[in-house]
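Much of what follows relies on a compact textual record of a protein's fold. A complete example follows; check for yourself that the lines match position by position.
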Amino acid sequence: MKGELTPKQAAFVREYIKSGNATQAYRKAYDAGGMKPEHINVEASKLLDHPKISQRVKEFQDKANERAGITLSEHLERLAHLSKVAEGLEQISASVKAEELRAKASGLYVERVEHSGGDVPVVITFALDRPHPEGE
C-alpha cells in the first residue's frame, strides 16, 4: 500500500488509539456535525476496515504492547492460568470470563453491534486482530 494516511485519517487513528471508540474518533477527526449517528457508525467502521488505517492502528497497539512488555502469547498464558486458578477456587464465572478474554484476544470471537435508531437498522461487526497484508 503506497502513500501515507491523510491528515484526517491520521487524526482518526490517534483518537481511536486514545479512546478505543471508532465512532468517537470519527466525530473528533471528521466534520460529522450534520451526520446521523448511524451514518457516523458506518463510516467509522469503514475506516477501521481500511487496510492503511488498520495497519497503523496495529502498529500503535504493537508499540504499546512492546513498551508494556506484553506479548500475545504471554497474555494468553496468563489468562489460562487465571482461569485454572478461578476454577480451582470454584469461581466458575471468573474462569469463564478468563476463557472468554482468551478467545477474544486470539480472534476467535467477533463482536457484533446492532443499532436500530433511525429508518434503517445498522449492523456493525468488529473482528479482533484480523490479519492484513504486511507493509504499506
